[in-house]
Amino acid sequence: MKTLTLAELATVTGGELHGDATATVTMVAPMDKAQQGHVTFLSNPKYAKHLAECQATVVMVKAAQLEQCQGNALVVDDPYVAFAKVAQALDTTPKAAVGIAPSAVIDPSAKLGENVSIGANAVIEEGVELGDNVVIGAGCFIGKQAKIGANTQLWANVSIYHNVELGTDCLVQSNTVIGSDGFGYANDKGEWIKIPQLGSVRVGNRVEIGGCTTIDRGALEDTVIADNVILDNQMQIAHNVEIGYGTAMAGGTIVAGSTKIGKYCIIGGASVINGHIEIADGVTITGMGMVMRSIDEKGIYSSGIPLQTNKEWRKTATRVHRIDEMNKRLKAVEKQLEEHSNS
């Protein structure tokens, strides 16, 4: 358990402390459950009514809510960002490995930087380069000529195929596969002929990838994940996809091959994105979006149908099936009105 004084919290967040600088906290908690020794935050103004009853040792708020605080307060520009910084400072998550396990299999040609850790039964193949402070969890596989930048951590059972490159300060969760073959086949009179995937995958710096996600290598050129991208769990990123700087994609999303996603996009969970299209910078796609065509302008796009009762959904589905019929009838009425007005 880590302990921070409120003075240290002010340093971590860059905030302005109002109260006892020597008081201490050991964890972050929701406002309605926080007790002494906890730090909490107010990011949604509608919950400001709970400030008077809050039992936390300190509350992180914007300046507008300071007068409503009954105890210690830390005034910050963005309480949610401050929460993230404090959570990092108090984080006690262990590393995926410490030191080099005797059962790790490391090819003599592999280049290991300073302070590298490799867990039990991990395999490091020929020509691999691991930067300083890299952590490779138990059971990981790092294929030939792969490169992993400084301070990057892989949790257990991650597979990194040959020639894949990961940048610095990345985090990859368990069971993710990076560099597996893209879905490339030619059909010769009903027989599938595999097309060797000759490209690779290039992952930038400060990228985080969730568990059980698959990123395929390119067919001829590389699949590219830019810096500062975050990818959730159980995603499929197909061959030759490019994802731009700062984009965030939620779990279960599927991106088909050769699609380019711009910078600072937000893709909701369970979305499906067609291949060979482009999505502009700053696009938000809400959950269960089905993107069939390129998106040229920044904005919010939706296509998933919100949940209804079964009775309502049946009515909606029936109406959808009748759209063509209704459209023909509408056009017929419009034609009659036009003929009437011209007579």
UniProtKB/TrEMBL annotation:
<dbReference type="Pfam" id="PF00132">
    <property type="entry name" value="Hexapep"/>
</dbReference>
<comment type="subunit">
    <text>Homotrimer.</text>
</comment>
<keyword id="KW-0443">Lipid metabolism</keyword>
<dbReference type="InterPro" id="IPR011004">
    <property type="entry name" value="Trimer_LpxA-like_sf"/>
</dbReference>
<dbReference type="Pfam" id="PF04613">
    <property type="entry name" value="LpxD"/>
</dbReference>
<keyword id="KW-0441">Lipid A biosynthesis</keyword>
<feature type="domain" description="UDP-3-O-[3-hydroxymyristoyl] glucosamine N-acyltransferase non-repeat region">
    <location>
        <begin position="24"/>
        <end position="88"/>
    </location>
</feature>
<comment type="pathway">
    <text>Bacterial outer membrane biogenesis; LPS lipid A biosynthesis.</text>
</comment>
<protein>
    <recommendedName>
        <fullName>UDP-3-O-acylglucosamine N-acyltransferase</fullName>
        <ecNumber>2.3.1.191</ecNumber>
    </recommendedName>
</protein>
<dbReference type="InterPro" id="IPR001451">
    <property type="entry name" value="Hexapep"/>
</dbReference>
<keyword id="KW-0677">Repeat</keyword>
<keyword id="KW-0444">Lipid biosynthesis</keyword>
<comment type="function">
    <text>Catalyzes the N-acylation of UDP-3-O-acylglucosamine using 3-hydroxyacyl-ACP as the acyl donor. Is involved in the biosynthesis of lipid A, a phosphorylated glycolipid that anchors the lipopolysaccharide to the outer membrane of the cell.</text>
</comment>
<comment type="similarity">
    <text>Belongs to the transferase hexapeptide repeat family. LpxD subfamily.</text>
</comment>
<keyword id="KW-0012">Acyltransferase</keyword>
<feature type="active site" description="Proton acceptor">
    <location>
        <position position="239"/>
    </location>
</feature>
<keyword id="KW-0808">Transferase</keyword>
<dbReference type="InterPro" id="IPR007691">
    <property type="entry name" value="LpxD"/>
</dbReference>
<dbReference type="InterPro" id="IPR020573">
    <property type="entry name" value="UDP_GlcNAc_AcTrfase_non-rep"/>
</dbReference>
